[in-house]
Records
---
Amino acid sequence: MSTLQLIDLPLAGLQLLHQRSHEDDRGRFTRLFCEGFLADNGAAFSIRQINHSLTRERGTVRGLHFQFPPHAESKLISCLRGCVWDVVVDVRRGSPTFLSWHAELLEEGRATALLIPPGFAHGFQTLTNDAELLYLHSADYAPTHEGGLSVHDARLGIRWPLPILNLSDRDGGHPLLDEHFEGVEV
């Protein structure tokens, strides 16, 4: 039996990766990533960049970020410590779920990760202090191709579980959507 399992989520292409942990008196071992497993299951993913974040204060929101082609990226997000409410928004031009959002609880010890394909904006809110996330990216960060959505945008209607705290100037400066936003072609 595989130590990994992919589960389709309501937005096409978005998947939850279940990682089975093996525990004994020494502790715990969990396979977080397996390129071969993902490729064999139609979710090919090569790692170009790995990032780690520590967010100190409960209620902090980071995001909602995406990259425009040709630097659009897949992400695999795991929570190493604490708990976050992880949100993705479909920004794929022509998608039947364009501007729809989905959220998953990612939590230390739960052995799940969110597999986000290109064409989705990503962000999260910390539900605990000192939450740590591990991000695997399929593309290098390209600041000239970065996009963002406002976490306050009524058009998205995201229901954040806590009052939003500690929003960076950069994230707070993302514009509200208007009729000119057509999404990204992936």
---
Amino acid sequence: MITLCGSPISNYYNKVKLALLEKGVPFTEEFVPTKSTDPAVLAASPLAKIPFIRTPQGGLCESQVILEYIESAYPSPPLLPADPYAAAKVRELTLFIDLHLELVVRDLYPQAFFGGTVSDSNKARVQKQLQKNIAAFKQLARFAPYVAGDTFTQADCSAFANLPLLGMATKAVLGEDMLLAAGIDYKPYIKLVGERPAAQKVVADRKAAATRA
């Protein structure tokens, strides 16, 4: 059985958890804090990044790699289209959300969520980069009704976990939700995905973990 390691507060943990739940894969959860120095953690995730999983064959880290493993090991129900090009477009969109939206806005999290501060120069840098990247995302995203088209896919696991964070962080630190400002009305989409039982469990577990923190 798979063990999902990390914290329900982590957006990338929840990206993987949502995929596992949607596919009905049996798994257990193990809390692992960030920056762990436990040798057992480092054996599975050498940079001590979360999430990672433990499988009967060994550990595996990096959320997108984990999703690809899950898709290969548990192909039904699929979270990727059967057509190779269509599947590649879903992967493209998933990585775009992770690397060009979430990773950029992450620099605002200290001020948005943790009581820290972000310098004006870093705010300006993030804002400029997000303006460019969100315009590109707008070209890739479909919202028809799911982010990659008419079917729930891996891209939705990333979008559901990450788009609200981008909206909240940019509004808190930069004064506006940059997705909405760019004409991307993503909130009905988040509501739609949020009605799925798997997403409801992810959200409930995240809220419970935040209360305990």
---
Amino acid sequence: MNGDIRELYQEMIMDHNKNPRNFRAVKDANRNAEGYNPLCGDHFKVSLLMDGDVIKDIGFEGAGCAISKASASMMTAALKGKTRREAKALFEEVHKMLSRKIGEPCDVSKVGKLATLAGVCEFPARVKCASLAWHTMCEALDPTGKQVTTE
């Protein structure tokens, strides 16, 4: 990761950690899920208000490291107004971006501002932190009744 991209990555993580977007329970949510990372203690609840197939509102609550909180914040900002299909497609792209091998090329054209999370792959232990909220959102979209865990 070059210096400019690393600086942008750090700025975005710190901004979304200190000023998380949609850090709240969604009033009248009709979908909820809970996720937990037992290795570091990240623990989030994601709530959705679905209007048909569209995410009308999305929020998250809980506590976690800067990367997990920032990723959850960025996720909620990116998914509000998206359809279920669009949300799942974005999850797939973000998951590929986060879990790729260091140095492996990555097409970030489909993830917009979420591309700033691409640097997480350089810290393999932090991939689970960055992906926890995303997996929790998927559980909220298609509930199995299970708590999401990174293990």
